[in-house]
């Protein structure tokens, strides 16, 4: 995964936390829920990227095993 993806996911998660906090402070349940949803979405993206990276690493290890 690229560092840019890490940064984008972290920024999206932080934005969700801010939205949730503003929603709580203003008693806006809709904004609060939207903030939680943004955080969940960012976490899911991060998890997907981690799975993709792990699969890539397994593939590389298998290729390296055949080279030896």
Report on this model:
The chain has 68 residues and is mostly helical. The chain is built from 2 helices and no strands. The chain has helices at 3-25, 29-67. Helix 1 runs antiparallel to helix 2. The longest helix has 39 residues, at 29-67. It starts with a helix and ends with a helix.
Task: Summarize this structure briefly.
By secondary structure, the chain is mainly alpha-helical. The protein has helices at 3-25, 29-67.
Give the secondary structure arrangement, pairings included:
Layout: H1 3-25, H2 29-67
Helix pairs in contact: 1-2
What is the chains' assembly state? single chain
User: SS-based structural class?
Assistant: mainly alpha
H/E topology pattern:
HH
Principal-axes shape call? rod-shaped
Number of helices: 2
> Over the alpha carbons, how many angstroms does the gyration radius reach?
18 Å
Distance between the termini: 27 Å
User: Tally of extended strands?
Assistant: 0
User: Sheet with the most strands?
Assistant: none
Q: Which residues form runs of ≥5 with pLDDT under 50?
A: none
Question: What is the mean predicted local confidence, pLDDT?
Answer: 90
Content of β-strand: under 5%
What is the share of helical residues?
over 70%
What brief labels describe this structure?
68 residues; mainly alpha; 2 helices; rod-shaped
């Amino acid at each position: 995964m690229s560092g840019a993806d890490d940064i984008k996911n972290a920024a999206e998660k932080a934005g969700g936390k801010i939205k949730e906090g503003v929603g709580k402070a203003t008693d806006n349940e809709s904004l609060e829920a939207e903030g939680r949803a943004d955080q969940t979405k960012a976490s899911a993206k991060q998890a997907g990227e981690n799975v993709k990276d792990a699969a890539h690493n397994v593939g590389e290890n298998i290729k390296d095993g055949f080279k030896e």
